[in-house]
Each structure stands twice: as C-alpha cells, then as structure tokens.
Amino acid sequence: MTNIFELTTRPDRSLFFSRNDKHDPRMGEIVQSEPDHYESADLVILGCPQDDGIRRAGGRPGAASAPDAIRQQFYRLTTFNMKKKVFDLGNIRIGATLEETHDVQCEVVKQVLRDGKRIIILGGGNDISFPDGVAMADIFGADCWIGINIDSHLDVRIADERNSGTPYRQLLDGKHLVPRYFYEVAFQTHFCSPVYYNYIRDLGVNRISLELLRSRAEADIELREGIRNSFIAHSSSLNTFFGFDMDAVRSADAPGTSAPSPLGLRAGEFIQLVKYAASLANTKIVEFTEVNPTYDVDDRTTKLVAIGMHRFCTGVA
Question: How confident is the model at residue 232 (pLDDT cuts 50, 70, 90)?
Fold first, then answer.
C-alpha cells in the first residue's frame, strides 16, 4: 500500500480560516488534515504546486503558488449545504524533474482511488492530467473511464518532452484513454492547430467547441446529452474524470491564468459544468489547473475556483 502521507506535505494550517463565530462556521473549521481523519473522508483535496510543464511549453510561470492561493479562498467559504466529509491531503512532494513529480502524483492518486474516495486536485499546470489519467486507467481500466477536458486548447501536442500541452496526447497514444470516451469541451478554434484537430477527429474523440457549447440554452446540455446518449446502457460502470483548465474561462472572470483570453466560458457557465460533474455518481477526479495568482486581479480566479470546489463538494451525487 502506498504511504500517501510520506509522498505529500501537510497543508499550512494558517490557511484554514475561522471567524470564531459559532453562528457563522467556515470551511476552514470543518475540513480535516490530520492523518487520523483520512479514513472517514468522502472527498480529498490534493495540490500539485509546480509549473514546470507550463515553463516547458513556453507559458508564463506562476501556477506553482495556485494550490495554497485557492485554499486560502476556499477555507473562507461557509459550510452551507456541506454534508460530505472533506480531507485536505496537502501537496505532492515535488521531484527533481516533472517526470518524477508525475510519478509521485500518480501513486498518490491511485491509492486515494483505491480507498474509494473522490479527489479534487489543484494544479499546477494542466500536465497533471497525464498522471491523473494514468491513475484512472490503472485503477478502473482504460476502457472504464470517461475523460473530459474543459479547456480553450486541445492539449494533444507532439513534443520532445511532456509539458502542459501534451497530457491527452500521452493518454491517447499510450492507450490509457479510449478516444470515444474522451471529450474536448469549450475549445476555441483560433487556438487550435488544424493538424491536432484532425488528429482527434480521426480518432473519434467527442468535440464540443466553445461556439457549439454557447449555442445551447445551458452550458452543460451538449455534454450531458452526448454522455447520456453514448453511455446510457452502461453508465453505472464508467467512472468519470473532469479536467477544468481555467484558461477556458474568459479573462474578465478569470484574469489569473497561464494563458488568458477575452473569450471563453462565463463564470456561471463554468459553475454549471462543475455542478454537472458533481451530479454524476461516478465522478472520481475533478482537476482545476493553470491558475496563476501572480496575474490575478482581486483574487477573482482563485475565488472562482474556490466556489467551484464548494459547488462540487455540496453537489456530489
């Protein structure tokens, strides 16, 4: 059995906010982080404080500080509708290379999944979707999980070394993820190479562009209908992974990201998709990546992710 507490560092307790008011309890007062409380938890928070993959891809650094910046906002929120037990496992121990960090992350995530818990993972760069996806495949089987990448980019680049633009290429080429079980959601065509688009199209990957998503009355309809129609016969046996790259949200609502854009999901649409992730009984992992506190304005981005975490915790099926 993997000792997840040796492979992680404990969260900073100064982040766990309290108003010291019994009439106004906050998340910082109810989320546990001592190892003795892990077994009874339903949901586990895990951070990966690195931006090595972003640097490799030529993006702007700063996402390494995101997990604790998000925690700071999350632990200020109230306990309204909170019925599940949440445990903060802390942060992955960062290795000498990105590959070493990914190996550690994969082992920790696999053990948490073995223990029957759902995981909220805070990046860091979107490169962590690779070790998290490998963990899903190893625990449940490559043909028993659905991967959903909510991102303005496709992240299927070819590169000499893994980076924040390569995770789903690695998962698909490595046979860790079945193409027809993979959804690319909210991508913006002006950010996507036609070569890489043709690659996912020819594989049979499900594609829901920002324009298509925006054409429906609610942000989650296209995704919800696609999954229902494709997997209604065996949805109870398929586990689900949601990767929310915050670059997918427009910069007016999320200015602190690795690659901001004036176009993208609105804050309300982002929350709608998070709530959909929570509504699926077999959602095992939810990732929030590419937050860059260095460029955040009034903590808008970290606050939005914190609210998304809250909606997930209070809405899990």
Answer: low
